[in-house]
Design goal:
Keywords: Signal. This is DUF3078 domain-containing protein. InterPro entries: DUF3078. It holds the Pfam family DUF3078. The protein is mainly beta. It has a domain of 245 residues. The protein is 8% helix and 49% strand. The strands form three sheets. Strands 1-2-3-4-5-6-7-10-11-12-13-16 form a twelve-stranded antiparallel beta barrel. The protein has a two-stranded antiparallel sheet with strand order 8-9. Strands 14-15 form a two-stranded antiparallel sheet. Strand 12 and strand 13 form a beta hairpin.
Protein backbone atom coordinates (compact mmCIF):
# COMPACT_ATOMS: atom_id res chain seq x y z
CA UNK A 1 0.00 0.00 0.00
CA UNK A 2 2.87 2.37 0.86
CA UNK A 3 4.52 1.61 -2.47
CA UNK A 4 1.35 2.35 -4.44
CA UNK A 5 0.99 5.64 -2.59
CA UNK A 6 4.56 6.64 -3.41
CA UNK A 7 4.13 5.73 -7.07
CA UNK A 8 0.98 7.83 -7.30
CA UNK A 9 2.74 10.68 -5.52
CA UNK A 10 5.55 10.54 -8.06
CA UNK A 11 3.08 10.47 -10.96
CA UNK A 12 1.30 13.59 -9.73
CA UNK A 13 4.62 15.34 -9.13
CA UNK A 14 6.11 14.58 -12.53
CA UNK A 15 2.91 14.62 -14.59
CA UNK A 16 2.68 18.37 -15.25
CA UNK A 17 6.39 18.52 -16.01
CA UNK A 18 6.38 15.55 -18.38
CA UNK A 19 3.58 16.95 -20.51
CA UNK A 20 4.42 20.65 -20.32
CA UNK A 21 5.48 22.24 -23.60
CA UNK A 22 8.09 24.95 -23.98
CA UNK A 23 7.55 27.20 -26.98
CA UNK A 24 11.14 28.37 -26.98
CA UNK A 25 13.77 26.05 -28.40
CA UNK A 26 16.60 25.34 -25.98
CA UNK A 27 19.91 26.98 -26.74
CA UNK A 28 22.50 24.67 -28.26
CA UNK A 29 25.17 23.97 -25.65
CA UNK A 30 28.82 24.14 -26.58
CA UNK A 31 30.89 20.98 -26.53
CA UNK A 32 33.50 20.30 -23.89
CA UNK A 33 33.42 20.72 -20.11
CA UNK A 34 31.14 23.01 -18.11
CA UNK A 35 31.31 23.45 -14.33
CA UNK A 36 28.98 24.86 -11.69
CA UNK A 37 28.75 24.99 -7.92
CA UNK A 38 26.45 26.20 -5.15
CA UNK A 39 27.05 26.98 -1.49
CA UNK A 40 24.26 27.38 1.06
CA UNK A 41 24.66 28.35 4.71
CA UNK A 42 22.45 27.80 7.74
CA UNK A 43 23.10 29.50 11.11
CA UNK A 44 20.97 30.09 14.18
CA UNK A 45 21.92 31.36 17.64
CA UNK A 46 19.95 32.14 20.79
CA UNK A 47 21.35 33.18 24.19
CA UNK A 48 19.19 33.44 27.32
CA UNK A 49 20.56 34.77 30.64
CA UNK A 50 18.31 34.17 33.64
CA UNK A 51 15.34 33.44 31.34
CA UNK A 52 11.74 33.68 32.43
CA UNK A 53 9.98 30.39 33.13
CA UNK A 54 8.91 28.88 29.81
CA UNK A 55 11.05 31.27 27.76
CA UNK A 56 13.08 28.48 26.12
CA UNK A 57 16.75 27.47 26.18
CA UNK A 58 20.04 28.43 24.60
CA UNK A 59 20.68 27.27 21.05
CA UNK A 60 23.46 27.35 18.50
CA UNK A 61 23.17 25.63 15.14
CA UNK A 62 25.15 25.85 11.95
CA UNK A 63 25.62 23.92 8.74
CA UNK A 64 24.97 24.16 5.07
CA UNK A 65 24.82 22.57 1.67
CA UNK A 66 27.50 22.34 -1.01
CA UNK A 67 26.91 21.16 -4.56
CA UNK A 68 29.33 20.87 -7.46
CA UNK A 69 28.83 19.67 -11.01
CA UNK A 70 31.04 18.87 -13.99
CA UNK A 71 29.40 18.06 -17.34
CA UNK A 72 31.03 16.99 -20.59
CA UNK A 73 29.47 16.97 -24.04
CA UNK A 74 30.91 15.88 -27.37
CA UNK A 75 28.94 14.63 -30.34
CA UNK A 76 26.49 11.95 -29.20
CA UNK A 77 28.13 11.60 -25.77
CA UNK A 78 27.01 13.45 -22.65
CA UNK A 79 28.56 12.85 -19.22
CA UNK A 80 27.17 14.49 -16.07
CA UNK A 81 28.91 14.36 -12.67
CA UNK A 82 27.53 15.76 -9.40
CA UNK A 83 28.73 16.04 -5.81
CA UNK A 84 26.62 17.22 -2.87
CA UNK A 85 27.19 17.49 0.86
CA UNK A 86 24.48 18.45 3.36
CA UNK A 87 25.77 18.87 6.90
CA UNK A 88 24.47 20.56 10.04
CA UNK A 89 24.93 20.38 13.82
CA UNK A 90 23.19 21.95 16.79
CA UNK A 91 23.51 22.28 20.57
CA UNK A 92 20.56 22.93 22.84
CA UNK A 93 20.76 24.15 26.42
CA UNK A 94 23.97 24.51 28.42
CA UNK A 95 27.36 24.89 26.75
CA UNK A 96 28.42 21.60 28.37
CA UNK A 97 25.87 19.68 26.29
CA UNK A 98 27.28 17.86 23.25
CA UNK A 99 26.67 18.93 19.69
CA UNK A 100 24.10 16.83 17.88
CA UNK A 101 23.76 16.17 14.19
CA UNK A 102 20.97 17.89 12.32
CA UNK A 103 21.83 16.39 8.91
CA UNK A 104 24.79 14.56 7.38
CA UNK A 105 24.64 13.26 3.79
CA UNK A 106 27.40 12.85 1.23
CA UNK A 107 26.32 11.98 -2.33
CA UNK A 108 28.20 11.38 -5.58
CA UNK A 109 26.59 10.59 -8.93
CA UNK A 110 27.84 10.05 -12.46
CA UNK A 111 25.65 9.62 -15.53
CA UNK A 112 26.92 8.90 -19.04
CA UNK A 113 24.59 8.85 -22.04
CA UNK A 114 25.47 7.96 -25.65
CA UNK A 115 22.74 8.45 -28.24
CA UNK A 116 22.13 5.51 -30.56
CA UNK A 117 21.33 7.87 -33.44
CA UNK A 118 22.19 11.57 -33.46
CA UNK A 119 19.19 13.87 -32.87
CA UNK A 120 17.09 10.94 -31.60
CA UNK A 121 16.01 10.58 -27.95
CA UNK A 122 17.12 6.98 -27.36
CA UNK A 123 20.56 6.03 -26.10
CA UNK A 124 22.75 3.75 -24.04
CA UNK A 125 23.47 4.96 -20.51
CA UNK A 126 25.40 4.11 -17.38
CA UNK A 127 24.34 5.56 -14.02
CA UNK A 128 26.47 5.32 -10.86
CA UNK A 129 25.59 6.65 -7.42
CA UNK A 130 27.37 6.66 -4.05
CA UNK A 131 25.74 7.70 -0.77
CA UNK A 132 27.28 7.89 2.70
CA UNK A 133 27.93 10.38 5.51
CA UNK A 134 30.89 12.47 6.60
CA UNK A 135 31.26 12.16 10.39
CA UNK A 136 30.56 9.53 13.09
CA UNK A 137 27.17 9.44 14.80
CA UNK A 138 26.79 8.20 18.38
CA UNK A 139 23.77 7.41 20.52
CA UNK A 140 21.44 10.40 20.66
CA UNK A 141 22.79 11.76 17.33
CA UNK A 142 25.87 13.18 19.09
CA UNK A 143 29.17 13.75 17.32
CA UNK A 144 31.25 12.09 20.05
CA UNK A 145 30.96 9.56 22.87
CA UNK A 146 29.54 10.85 26.15
CA UNK A 147 29.65 9.23 29.60
CA UNK A 148 26.58 7.11 30.27
CA UNK A 149 26.04 5.99 26.68
CA UNK A 150 25.24 2.31 26.18
CA UNK A 151 28.09 1.85 23.68
CA UNK A 152 31.43 3.51 22.98
CA UNK A 153 31.13 2.61 19.30
CA UNK A 154 29.37 4.90 16.83
CA UNK A 155 26.13 3.78 15.25
CA UNK A 156 27.24 5.08 11.84
CA UNK A 157 30.17 6.85 10.19
CA UNK A 158 31.81 7.36 6.80
CA UNK A 159 31.38 4.21 4.68
CA UNK A 160 29.29 2.62 7.43
CA UNK A 161 26.86 2.60 5.80
CA UNK A 162 27.49 3.42 2.16
CA UNK A 163 25.17 2.60 -0.73
CA UNK A 164 26.64 2.01 -4.19
CA UNK A 165 24.43 1.52 -7.26
CA UNK A 166 25.54 0.70 -10.81
CA UNK A 167 22.84 0.75 -13.50
CA UNK A 168 23.54 0.08 -17.18
CA UNK A 169 20.42 1.44 -18.87
CA UNK A 170 18.47 2.35 -21.95
CA UNK A 171 17.86 6.10 -21.86
CA UNK A 172 15.11 8.28 -23.26
CA UNK A 173 16.14 11.93 -23.43
CA UNK A 174 13.88 14.00 -25.70
CA UNK A 175 15.46 17.31 -24.63
CA UNK A 176 17.92 18.86 -22.18
CA UNK A 177 15.31 18.88 -19.40
CA UNK A 178 14.00 15.31 -19.16
CA UNK A 179 15.77 11.96 -18.87
CA UNK A 180 14.23 8.53 -18.27
CA UNK A 181 16.49 5.56 -17.53
CA UNK A 182 15.36 1.94 -17.53
CA UNK A 183 17.81 -0.70 -16.32
CA UNK A 184 16.80 -4.38 -16.21
CA UNK A 185 20.03 -5.37 -14.45
CA UNK A 186 21.12 -2.94 -11.72
CA UNK A 187 23.60 -3.82 -9.00
CA UNK A 188 22.98 -2.27 -5.59
CA UNK A 189 25.17 -2.84 -2.56
CA UNK A 190 24.90 -1.59 1.02
CA UNK A 191 28.34 -1.56 2.65
CA UNK A 192 29.07 -1.30 6.38
CA UNK A 193 32.86 -1.38 6.62
CA UNK A 194 32.98 -1.14 10.45
CA UNK A 195 32.45 -4.54 12.12
CA UNK A 196 30.93 -3.12 15.31
CA UNK A 197 28.29 -1.22 13.30
CA UNK A 198 27.56 -4.18 11.01
CA UNK A 199 26.93 -6.30 14.13
CA UNK A 200 24.07 -4.04 15.33
CA UNK A 201 20.67 -5.58 14.57
CA UNK A 202 17.41 -3.91 13.67
CA UNK A 203 14.71 -3.94 16.32
CA UNK A 204 13.13 -7.09 14.85
CA UNK A 205 16.55 -8.60 13.91
CA UNK A 206 15.45 -9.01 10.28
CA UNK A 207 18.70 -7.39 9.14
CA UNK A 208 21.52 -5.21 10.38
CA UNK A 209 20.57 -1.75 11.56
CA UNK A 210 21.52 -0.31 8.16
CA UNK A 211 20.02 -3.14 6.09
CA UNK A 212 23.04 -5.44 5.78
CA UNK A 213 22.67 -9.25 6.26
CA UNK A 214 22.25 -10.33 9.86
CA UNK A 215 20.82 -13.26 11.81
CA UNK A 216 21.05 -16.93 12.73
CA UNK A 217 23.95 -19.16 13.69
CA UNK A 218 23.94 -21.57 10.72
CA UNK A 219 26.44 -20.53 8.02
CA UNK A 220 24.76 -22.44 5.17
CA UNK A 221 21.31 -21.03 6.03
CA UNK A 222 22.79 -17.51 6.17
CA UNK A 223 24.31 -17.84 2.69
CA UNK A 224 21.09 -19.31 1.30
CA UNK A 225 19.02 -16.42 2.69
CA UNK A 226 21.26 -13.46 1.88
CA UNK A 227 23.36 -14.67 -1.05
CA UNK A 228 26.64 -13.54 0.58
CA UNK A 229 29.04 -15.19 3.01
CA UNK A 230 29.04 -14.00 6.64
CA UNK A 231 32.07 -11.92 7.56
CA UNK A 232 31.72 -11.93 11.33
CA UNK A 233 29.90 -13.12 14.43
CA UNK A 234 28.53 -11.22 17.43
CA UNK A 235 29.28 -12.06 21.05
CA UNK A 236 26.04 -14.08 21.03
CA UNK A 237 27.28 -16.12 18.02
CA UNK A 238 24.86 -14.40 15.60
CA UNK A 239 26.24 -14.15 12.05
CA UNK A 240 26.45 -10.90 10.12
CA UNK A 241 27.98 -9.59 6.87
CA UNK A 242 29.54 -6.23 6.04
CA UNK A 243 27.75 -5.86 2.72
CA UNK A 244 24.64 -6.90 0.84
CA UNK A 245 24.49 -7.52 -2.89
CA UNK A 246 21.21 -6.87 -4.71
CA UNK A 247 20.40 -7.45 -8.37
CA UNK A 248 17.25 -5.88 -9.73
CA UNK A 249 15.52 -3.44 -12.05
CA UNK A 250 15.77 0.34 -11.81
CA UNK A 251 13.73 3.12 -13.31
CA UNK A 252 15.00 6.67 -12.87
CA UNK A 253 13.31 9.88 -13.98
CA UNK A 254 15.27 13.14 -13.95
CA UNK A 255 13.90 16.58 -14.73
CA UNK A 256 15.53 20.00 -14.53
CA UNK A 257 14.42 23.35 -15.89
CA UNK A 258 14.42 27.08 -15.26
CA UNK A 259 11.36 29.30 -15.49
CA UNK A 260 10.18 32.94 -15.57
CA UNK A 261 12.98 34.60 -17.52
CA UNK A 262 13.37 38.33 -16.92
CA UNK A 263 14.35 41.00 -19.43
CA UNK A 264 18.00 39.92 -19.15
CA UNK A 265 17.05 36.27 -19.88
CA UNK A 266 17.84 35.31 -16.30
CA UNK A 267 15.51 32.78 -14.63
CA UNK A 268 13.53 33.48 -11.46
CA UNK A 269 12.88 29.83 -10.61
CA UNK A 270 14.90 26.64 -11.03
CA UNK A 271 13.72 23.08 -10.42
CA UNK A 272 15.78 19.88 -10.35
CA UNK A 273 14.19 16.59 -9.33
CA UNK A 274 14.87 12.87 -9.66
CA UNK A 275 12.76 9.84 -8.79
CA UNK A 276 14.45 6.42 -8.51
CA UNK A 277 12.57 3.12 -8.14
CA UNK A 278 14.41 -0.16 -7.52
CA UNK A 279 13.14 -3.75 -7.20
CA UNK A 280 15.45 -6.56 -6.04
CA UNK A 281 14.91 -9.75 -8.08
CA UNK A 282 16.58 -11.92 -5.46
CA UNK A 283 14.79 -10.84 -2.28
CA UNK A 284 11.15 -9.71 -2.03
CA UNK A 285 10.88 -8.08 -5.49
CA UNK A 286 7.40 -6.77 -4.60
CA UNK A 287 9.03 -4.31 -2.17
CA UNK A 288 10.10 -1.29 -4.23
CA UNK A 289 12.81 1.02 -2.90
CA UNK A 290 12.04 4.70 -3.50
CA UNK A 291 14.28 7.76 -3.49
CA UNK A 292 12.91 11.11 -4.62
CA UNK A 293 15.16 14.19 -4.48
CA UNK A 294 14.02 17.71 -5.34
CA UNK A 295 15.80 21.06 -5.27
CA UNK A 296 13.85 24.25 -5.93
CA UNK A 297 15.76 27.52 -6.24
CA UNK A 298 14.08 30.93 -6.11
CA UNK A 299 16.70 33.29 -7.57
CA UNK A 300 16.95 36.70 -5.91
CA UNK A 301 19.81 38.36 -7.80
CA UNK A 302 23.26 37.59 -9.23
CA UNK A 303 23.35 33.91 -8.28
CA UNK A 304 21.85 34.36 -4.81
CA UNK A 305 18.83 32.14 -4.22
CA UNK A 306 16.56 30.67 -1.59
CA UNK A 307 16.85 26.91 -1.96
CA UNK A 308 14.31 24.31 -0.79
CA UNK A 309 15.67 20.75 -0.70
CA UNK A 310 13.53 17.66 -0.04
CA UNK A 311 14.35 13.94 0.10
CA UNK A 312 11.68 11.22 0.25
CA UNK A 313 13.10 7.76 1.00
CA UNK A 314 11.75 4.25 1.51
CA UNK A 315 13.69 0.97 1.63
CA UNK A 316 12.04 -2.14 3.04
CA UNK A 317 15.42 -3.40 4.29
CA UNK A 318 16.38 -0.18 6.09
CA UNK A 319 14.39 0.67 9.20
CA UNK A 320 14.05 4.27 10.39
CA UNK A 321 13.60 5.88 13.80
CA UNK A 322 10.01 6.15 15.03
CA UNK A 323 8.21 8.27 17.61
CA UNK A 324 5.28 5.97 18.39
CA UNK A 325 3.73 7.96 21.24
CA UNK A 326 4.28 11.55 20.00
CA UNK A 327 6.17 12.23 23.21
CA UNK A 328 9.59 13.93 22.80
CA UNK A 329 10.53 13.10 26.40
CA UNK A 330 10.83 9.34 25.91
CA UNK A 331 13.40 7.33 23.99
CA UNK A 332 16.46 8.81 22.28
CA UNK A 333 15.55 12.33 21.08
CA UNK A 334 11.91 11.25 21.22
CA UNK A 335 12.39 8.10 19.11
CA UNK A 336 11.48 4.92 21.00
CA UNK A 337 12.12 2.31 18.30
CA UNK A 338 12.74 1.61 14.64
CA UNK A 339 10.45 0.40 11.89
CA UNK A 340 9.59 0.51 8.18
CA UNK A 341 8.28 3.93 7.24
CA UNK A 342 8.69 6.63 4.61
CA UNK A 343 11.49 9.01 5.62
CA UNK A 344 11.25 12.70 4.66
CA UNK A 345 14.03 15.30 4.89
CA UNK A 346 13.47 19.01 4.19
CA UNK A 347 15.86 21.95 4.40
CA UNK A 348 15.60 25.63 3.50
CA UNK A 349 18.82 27.52 2.76
CA UNK A 350 20.14 30.76 1.35
CA UNK A 351 22.49 29.66 -1.43
CA UNK A 352 24.93 31.24 -3.82
CA UNK A 353 25.27 29.60 -7.25
CA UNK A 354 28.07 30.25 -9.71
CA UNK A 355 29.52 28.94 -12.98
CA UNK A 356 33.22 28.56 -13.76
Amino acid sequence: MKTKFLLLLGLFAFGPQLFAQDDKKPEEKKEGWTYDAGIGLDFAQLLLINPKVGAGENKIAFGGSTTMGADYKKGRLKWENNFSLNFGVQRLGASSNPFQKAIDELRLSSFADYKIVKDKPWGYALDLTFLSQLTPNYEGNTLSYQEGMASRSPRSKFFSPATVTISPSISYKPDDHLSVLISPASLKSIIVADDSIAAIANADASAGVHGTPYGGTDRAAFIDRWGVRPTGMTADSVLYANHSMQLGATMKILYKNKFFLNAEKKPRLGVKTSLTLFSDYLHNPQNIDVEWLTTTDLYIFKGLSISLNTIVFYDHDVQVQLDRDNDPDTGVNGYESTGRRVSVTESLLIKYNFLF
